[in-house]
Every structure is written in C-alpha cells, then in structure tokens.
Design goal:
The structure holds two protein chains of two kinds. In chain A, the strands form two sheets. In chain A, strands 2, 4, 5, 6, 9, 10 and 11 form a seven-stranded mixed beta sheet that branches. In chain A, strands 1-3-8-7 form a four-stranded antiparallel beta sheet, with no helix packed on it. In chain A, 0% of the residues lie in helices and 53% in strands. Chain A is built from no helices and eleven strands. Chain A is an all-beta fold. Chain A is globular, with a radius of gyration of 14 Å. Chain B has no helices and eleven strands. In chain B, the strands form two sheets. In chain B, strands 2, 4, 5, 6, 9, 10 and 11 form a seven-stranded mixed beta sheet that branches. In chain B, a hairpin with a 5-residue loop joins β4 and β5. Classes of the chains: A mainly beta, B mainly beta.
C-alpha cells in the first residue's frame, strides 16, 4: 500500500503563492498517477489535476489552468503542488491521492494540508 | 462536466438498521469496456476520504461485506445492510469516467 505524506499547514496573503508537497513511500515513485483534490469542510471534494510521476506529464482542471503547477522530484519521491495568485476562496484543505488504475478510483490519500489565505 | 447528485443529504439511522444512498450522474458512466466508472468514498470526521466501492459494485480491500454498491449507467446506490457506529461520516460518490472527476454533494450518515 502506498503512503502519502504531505507537508504542514501554510498561511499566505492574497496574491501570494503556496507550495504543498506530497512524499510517496511504500512503492516505487514512478508509475503513478498522483492527483490533487481540495475540499472545504462541509463541501464536496474538488478535483484539481494530476501528474504522471513517471514522465512528469500533467493535466489541470480548467478552473486552475493558469495558476496551478505540479512538479515531481524523483530523487526525493515527492510531488509539489504550487498554486499562485491566492485568494480567500483558496482557503481549504489540499489532498494528494493516488489513482489506482485497476480500480479507476483514488485508492490512497494523504492526510491533507490546510492552506489559509488571509490578509 | 459530469454533475453528480446524491440523496438524501442527511441520513439518520439506528444501529443494526439498513441504509441506502442514491447517486445520479448527468451522463452515463458506462465505459466502452462495460465497467461503470463510479466509486463510493466514506470520509470520517477529521479524516481523508477512504475508498469503499469501485467500478460501481466492487468492495475495496478491507471493506466489510455489509457495504454493497449497485447501479445502471446513471443511477447508483450504496447500501449498508446493518449500520454500525463506526459507519458514521459523509459518503461521497465520484465519477472516474472523464476529467474533471466530480463528486456528489455528500450524504451525512448519523446514528439515531
């Protein structure tokens, strides 16, 4: 089973950027589709996009297309999510999750990282 | 985008009683390979979502057999045969057919 360890809570001002990390362990780093999902408590999860940890290819939800970047560091078995141009509505919990191909679903999730955007 | 709609949004259930949650998609989730790309997750308070059911009707590893999933191309049901206290939380359906992958609003199950 894959373990996903995320970085700690962050606080930023509006207009700034934030980077959240997700370290993969318990399996080889390459060969996964690693997704990011965010969720404000009490609301449904919102899919943001994914990165292929093997070749680095990315796909972003149209909503985040112009301010979201996923980067992988194979030496550290870590994926980074960078969100720029932060606004108050970006205050939420960000999860990384592994897509399990044989199940066509998210089989493993990180514990989540709270990002707070406040002036 | 595929819209996922769940009902009910709140579900109070007595221990040992059955429970049923419905999920409807705005378009068919039946893939050309004949699998239905619908998953169910349970999010316990303060935790990440955990996979319960995948491809419409398959229980994930470690999920008790009191949980079952069924459905057609657009209408799906999660059933719990006998609710236990540990089943409390919010249940989400999610379509995995095409990005953006979308979730239902969630159904909050509570123990009466």
């Amino acid at each position: 089973q894959v373990q996903l360890v995320q970085s700690g809570a962050e606080m930023r001002k509006p207009g700034a950027s934030v980077q959240v990390s997700c370290k993969v362990s318990g399996d080889t780093f390459t060969g996964h589709a690693l997704h990011w999902v965010r969720q404000t408590p009490g609301q449904r999860p919102e899919w943001m996009g994914w990165i292929n940890t093997g070749n680095g290819k990315t796909r972003y939800a149209q909503k985040f297309q112009d301010r979201l970047t996923f980067i992988r560091d194979t030496s550290a078995s870590t994926v980074y999510m960078k969100l720029s141009g932060l606004r108050s509505e970006d205050t939420t919990i960000y999860y990384c999750a592994i897509w399990t191909a044989e199940w066509e679903a998210f089989g493993d999730w990180g514990r989540g990282t709270l990002v707070t955007v406040t002036s | 985008d595929i819209v996922m709609t769940q009902s009910p949004l709140s579900l109070p259930v007595s221990p040992g009683e059955p429970a049923s949650i419905s999920c409807r998609s705005s378009q068919s989730l039946l893939h050309a390979n004949r699998y239905k790309y619908l998953a169910w997750y349970l999010q316990k308070p303060g935790k990440s979502p955990q996979l319960l059911i995948y491809l419409g009707s398959n229980r994930a590893s470690g999920v008790p057999d009191r949980f079952s999933g069924s459905g057609s191309g657009t209408d799906f049901t999660l059933q719990i045969s006998r609710v236990e206290a540990e089943d409390v939380g919010v249940y989400y359906c999610m379509q995995g057919l095409q990005p953006p992958f979308t979730f239902g609003q969630g159904t909050r199950l509570e123990i009466k």
